Amino acid sequence: MDTMRDRFAPVVSQLLDENPRLAVVLAEIGKDGFREAMRRHSDRVLNVGIREQLLIGAAAGLALTGLRPVVHTFASFLVERPFEQVKLDLGHQGAGAVLVSAAASFDWPAGGFTHMAPGDVALLDTLDGWTVHVPGHPDEAETLLRHAVAAGDDKVYVRLSVQANQQGRMTDGAHFVTVRTGRRGVVAAVGPVLDAVLAATEGLDVTVLYATTVRPFDAAGLRRATAMAGTDVVLVEPYLAGTSATAVSTALSDVPHRVLGLGVSRRELRRYGTIEEHQAAHGLDARSLRERIGGFVGTDRVPVRV
């Protein structure tokens, strides 16, 4: 199976041919995928070099001229390093762009902590008006990229990862998908953690919701699920644990509820290892999720297959 990032350059290159408003801004990372597009559209495919603050500033300038910029690099260099420019050049000036990241929370462990960004979605949560897509499969990534480019002049973040579910699912860029129904709690799985969540909850009487878009948060979808399954809610997110806990509490503010936020911990792991070792260390493997979800919702425990 190809990766989400494998889909990125071909899809956006095609959109460049179709949409004269579209522009691409790169900071060295990913430039090889756009060589042909740069030849065809030299005025709309820009590489600013290893200058991430300029990456965002140039995108904002293009947006202010009426273009729709797609901006790409690793998540840590796209959201964290140039955060002031994201806040001011885009947000304060009311300029829209599509930020497309790679490397996610720990996709490239050998790159070290400088190339990890488990706090990216939480950081964007401090700003107003961002749509955040977290696909869990290359097919979903392609769909959401097309949604993002077509989203007028909105500010959109698309979080790509090498981690992926085996099966892509239909996504409309807005709502939760109900994957499994139950009566003793709701488990909301975001993007590439769905397969682990399904393995972890096999045989448990819980509803499993799948989210590929987390901002805006589908409050109505969560309320419908909890009306049937109860108001114990477990969030499983592939980034900083508890990032969406406030959104859950806001959605259920008029009813008693409990929330358990599972995801990447704040503890820095200094032995970088493999992706699978990071998942296990953060409790995001199926066996660990089984223990934590089962303990929270109080469902009878059945051995999990891993």
Q: How does this structure look, described?
A:
With 306 residues, this protein is α/β, with parallel strands linked by helices. 36% of the residues lie in helices and 21% in strands. Helix 7 links the parallel strand 5 (130-133) and strand 6. It is globular and about 60 Å long. Mean pLDDT is 96; it is low at 301-306.
Strand content: 15-25%
Which strand order do you get reading across the main beta sheet?
2-1-3-4-6-5-10
CATH superfamily of the largest domain: Thiamin diphosphate (ThDP)-binding fold, Pyr/PP domains
CATH class membership of the largest domain: Alpha Beta
Whole-number total of structural domains: 2
Low-pLDDT stretches: 301-306
* Rounded radius of gyration (Å): 19 Å
Determine the structural class based on helices, strands and strand pairing. Answer: alpha/beta
Order of helices and strands: HEHEHEHHEHEHEEEHEEHEHEHH
* Shape summary: globular
Mean pLDDT: 96
InterPro entries: PDH/Transketolase, THDP-binding, Transketo_C/PFOR_II, Transketolase-like_Pyr-bd
Organism: Streptomyces pluripotens
Domain Transketolase-like pyrimidine-binding: 2-167
GO molecular function, one term: magnesium ion binding
Question: Topology of this protein?
Answer:
Layout: H1 4-18, E1 22-26, H2 35-40, E2 45-47, H3 52-64, E3 68-74, H4 75-80, H5 83-92, E4 97-102, H6 120-124, E5 130-133, H7 138-149, E6 155-159, E7 177-180, E8 186-190, H8 194-200, E9 207-211, E10 213-215, H9 219-229, E11 232-240, H10 245-251, E12 258-264, H11 275-281, H12 286-297
Parallel strand pairs: 1-2, 1-3, 3-4, 4-6, 5-6, 8-9, 8-11, 11-12
Antiparallel strand pairs: 5-10, 7-9
Helix pairs in contact: 1-7, 3-5, 8-12, 9-10
